[in-house]
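To illustrate this point, what follows is a protein record of this kind.

___
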Amino acid sequence: MKKHLLPLFAILLSANMYAQQDFFALVGKDTPNIVFNDFRAMDIATVTSGEKIFTADSSVKVFSQARNGVLTENKNSYDHSQATMMATLAYDSSNNNLVYMPMFSSNIYVLNPTTKEVTLVENNVARATSCDVNSHITRMSTGYDGNIYATSNAGNQFLQISKKGTQYVVQDLGIIKDDASNGKNSFTSMQTGFGGDMIADTDNNFYVFSASGNVFKVMTKELKAKFVGKISGIPENYSVNGAAVNSKGKVVIASAKGAPLYEVDIEHLQAKMLPGEQNLHIYDLASKYFANDRATSTNAFAKLDIYPTKVEGQVISVEGNDKILKGNLKLTVFDISGKNVMMQNLTVKEGNVNQQVYLKNLVTGAYLVNITDEAGKVVLNKKILVTK
């Protein structure tokens, strides 16, 4: 029996290590041109590379969703799972998959990082061609609703990729147009708006970080892109190619030109260079985090908060450290119709709250968490999204 313990421990350790990975990079070779090398995990706190999950040289078996079988791909085309020109990556944390698209292709690929299996999602909704730079899908991110979103350079294709049962489904949501206030900073212009990457916020809107360093807020209901500013604190010739939110709520940006990574405050667009690896050629970044995750609170106590706001399990944590906090707090959860669906008391000890709350019997959907003090004064309102 003992001889089986070490391999079993190694398997469990490996699974636990992967479960802690939440930041990923699409990395290229050290060349002037875009040449795909690998998808890898990143320790973004220290900016160091982790496991290479999938490489240009990996032995790969591609399963076709449409044909319900294994597919032999043409490696001499733009339409294959290890294509040279790669620029999009998203982390589907609900299904623990990486989703990506080759730049000159409409194909969508889903990679299971654990089994290394690749599924081809044939995309007949939108078309990308090598001769039309406007049509190239260059930005991709997971939305707060759990779906994957991608957009072309010119915003003339805005795709939603969602999983229905065992199948991924693609929908074209329409054309993203410039907000009337954009002026010369056009979202649809090659010089000011093309390339880069995008991240999502907790209202399921998106921020596109273009290659030029311009930032646009894409409002999904109106399908409008509003220019919000240009990143400051990066070199003048810095090409922004990857963007993803870290666990602190800051946006990490990266370049395909082998430059350092920077951390950007989404509110002020001020960048700060990060230490660690300095010469990574990164074409895209992906994570499970969202912009404005903490800023969406109506919070009377700056040090009182709940997390996560996207609840993949059934537990949230409430943490606070403020001398103003006294006695007991009451946590109430409301559904989107305003109905009270659960209540729980929170204990305060010397101004500290550190308590886990089990969200029993809550179905998938959006909820509002309300916390009040002993006098009934609201000290926190925060939206959460429960997924299962």
Observations:
- The chain is about 5% helix and 45% strand.
